[in-house]
Design goal:
Blueprint (H helix, E strand, L loop, with lengths): L2 E11 L19 E10 L2 E7 L8 E4 L4 E4 L1 E3 L11 H7 L10 H10 L2 H17 L2 E4 L1 E2 L6 H12 L5 E6 L8 H16 L5 E6 L6 H13 L3 E2 L1 E3 L7 H7 L4 E4 L5 H8 L4 E4 L1 H7 L6 H7 L3 E3 L13 H12 L3 H8 L1 H6 L16 E4 L6 H4 L6 E5 L5
Parallel strand pairs: 1-4, 1-5, 6-7, 8-9, 9-10, 10-11, 10-12, 12-13, 13-14, 14-15
Antiparallel strand pairs: 1-2, 2-3, 5-16, 16-17
Helix pairs in contact: 4-5, 5-6, 8-10, 11-12
The protein binds N-(iminomethyl)-L-glutamic acid (NIG) and fe (iii) ion (FE).
The site of fe (iii) ion has 5 residues, from loops.
């Protein structure tokens, strides 16, 4: 087995609280920062991490030339298997229109018309775009098929691209369908057709999509088939989706744009993550929710892109981090944690999102003296090198 040491790291973010010092002692305490650090990798896994002066010998050495090293970003919410383009809808919105769930149906038509190769080609190029911006894990949802065969196809294609596959047959009721009959289809034959390839079940619980009782039925059907629940809720208005998600033990409730005080208290008293998607507010001109309010209440927050052709077509976690800092009241340390370890925990993963012994060596070198530059230098390509387990 070959070991590799990455040495001359100016600042290493491990996200391992063991390196954090007394909690609250510094803004980045939770990030487990080490200055003048080294990292040893064996078999694609972190074998040692600590101060450079104490680094053990290794077979090979790489030089980080004083750069900042962080865990790869975990983008825990995306819809990147789709056909078509909705730039005209974006343009109309930027000319005074508003975002509505119904736009999803135009992507459904374009997705059904696309070949497997076209869908995979587009998704692979988005994954390459994500990786060049530091993302090393991405969750992918179905939801632009909305028939048994089309949803099965999307879930199967997504499974070729990631381990984090989410069945979102309940994205919107397809044009011309009866809502209750469609919910029966989703909870019956569609679930049968996708269960083998999906880890998660998701529902868009919102006006114009699925109400809270339909959402409950769908999530419970998924849970009974061994899928784990997560959901889209409170994107366009407050609703009962957050309370439902918490009561079902959802790993994450995503968007959380319109939260009541009760929602915040429920999230804070649970292990359910609030996944904030600041690119959506940016791209729809909706108000940004406050990450500060959630964190101060004690809720766990993740940040993701929601990369999709309708509400937000960015693949950039650094962009979302900069927005979370500027627009959601989060500190640079909180935003980085939420985009790495937070995303991993929102996917219930302990092997990613941090750099501690045994974790996957998904590592990003930033051409910057600190992760603070992710917000301080918005829009600047700071990602210098990205390595996942296979690259060492
Ligand atoms: O997360 N909200 C539901 N689904 C996506 C948008 C999908 C679309 O507009 O195509 C979202 O925002
Ligand atoms: Fe989404």
């Amino acid at each position: 087995m070959t070991s590799t040491v990455l040495r001359n790291i100016g600042l290493l973010v491990t996200n391992d609280p063991a390196f954090g010092g007394p909690s609250g002692s510094a803004p980045g305490a939770r990030l487990g920062e080490i200055r003048e650090a080294a990292l040893v990798v064996e078999d694609g896994l972190v074998a040692w991490v600590g101060p450079a002066a104490e680094a053990p010998a290794a077979d090979r050495a790489l030089d980080a030339e004083g750069r900042t090293v962080i865990p790869g970003f975990v983008d825990s919410h995306s819809h990147i298997v789709f056909g078509g383009d909705r730039s005209a809808e974006y343009e109309a919105r930027m000319s005074g229109g508003t975002y509505a769930a119904g736009g999803i149906r135009s992507t459904v038509a374009a997705t059904r018309a696309a070949t497997d190769d076209e869908l995979l080609g587009r998704a692979r190029s988005l994954i390459a775009e994500m990786r060049s911006q530091g993302t090393t894990t991405v969750e992918i949802k179905s939801g632009y098929g909305l028939t048994v065969d089309d949803e099965a196809r999307l879930v199967r294609l997504a499974a070729q691209l990631t381990d984090e596959v989410t069945f979102l047959g309940a994205h919107v009721v397809p044009a011309g369908a009866d809502a209750d009959e469609y919910v029966s289809l989703v909870t019956g034959p569609m679930l049968d057709a996708v269960a083998e390839h999906a880890k998660w079940i998701d529902v868009f619980c919102e006006r114009g999509a699925f109400d809270v009782e339909q959402t409950r039925r769908i999530l419970q059907a998924g849970i009974s088939r061994g899928l784990l629940p997560r959901l889209h809720a409170a994107q366009l208005q407050p609703g009962e989706g957050v309370a439902l998600g918490v009561s079902l033990g959802a790993a994450s409730i995503d968007h959380c744009t319109f939260l009541t005080d009760d929602d915040v208290a429920l999230l804070a008293g649970s292990s359910t993550f609030a996944t904030l998607l600041p690119g959506v507010e940016f791209s729809t001109r909706q108000p940004y929710p406050s990450g500060r309010r959630l964190i101060d209440a004690g809720a766990a927050v993740a940040i993701a892109t929601d990369c999709n052709p309708g509400s937000c077509f960015t693949s950039s976690m650094p962009f979302c981090i900069a927005l979370a800092i500027r627009e959601m009241g989060m500190t640079p340390a909180e935003a980085l944690w939420s985009a790495t370890r937070g995303g991993a925990r929102a996917l219930r993963r302990d092997d990613i999102g941090w750099l501690r012994i045994g974790a996957r060596a998904d590592v990003v070198e930033l051409d910057a003296p600190s992760y603070v530059h992710l917000g301080y230098r918005p829009g600047v390509p700071l990602v210098h090198t990205v390595r996942t387990a296979a690259d060492w």
